[in-house]
Amino acid sequence: MIEAVGLSKYYGIFTAxxxxxxxxxxxxLVAFLGPNGAGKSTTMKMLVGYLAPSEGVGKIAGHNMSxxxxxxxxxxxxxxxxxxxxxxxTPHGLLSFxxxxxxxxxxxxxxxIDGVIDTCRLDSVVYKPISKLSKGYRxxxxxxxxxxxxxxxxxxxxxxxxxxxxxxxxxxxVLRQLGETKTILLSTHIxxxxxxxxxxxxxxxxxxxxxxxxxNELGKDSDELHQAFxxxxxxxxxxxx
Length: 241
Hints:
By secondary structure, the protein is α/β, with parallel strands linked by helices. The chain has helices at residues 40-47, 69-73, 91-101, 106-119, 135-147, 165-178, 191-197, 215-218, 222-233, and strands spanning 2-11, 14-24, 29-33, 55-60, 63-64, 76-79, 153-157, 183-188, 200-205, 208-214. It folds into 2 domains: 1-75 and 152-241, Rossmann fold; 84-150, no CATH class. The strands form 2 sheets. It has a 6-stranded mixed β-sheet, with helices on both faces. It has a 4-stranded antiparallel β-sheet with strand order 2-1-4-5. It is globular.
């Protein structure tokens, strides 16, 4: 459902991402890990077609996102880090705007808005200005927008970054629920997210893939996960295949 094939991105002599290849299969929730500046966001932007790769191909549900982006985007929900929202709108107004932009008819629009408000637990804030919402609720609004058209695939970049423990718990619960029916690639640098939710782990460091495997192979508890992460992403790290 998600496939990176030799994705690379160069900015002059700087390499943001180099020959990154991995697959996410239907029904998986895969954690995409790496230290700050490792190239996670760059790789995700190439996967969703937001950023053109210098080399390689990003595919969503079999669609090449460089040449067939419209069809691929119909299957994709994307939540970027600090996703842009319209602060003067209410969550309901924002969702209505995006439903119209996607060409939904009136009955489906009403059904889907009600559905994502329920899924993302926005009932208590649905008519408040987004500018007045906490960061946790703004993240939920972003998730609701990404889910509005019932995509098969979700790609989320740091969805719990900057949230307090209660907000993180709420977002995790929503993600667990979504993981029952969706294929999810979740970018994070928080190893607790891996323990809590992931079926598999993909790690990049300095723009290159260094690990692709199960959570249990990486470590059985938090201490082992932290140790393995340090070994894979520290200055002396060697690529693991």
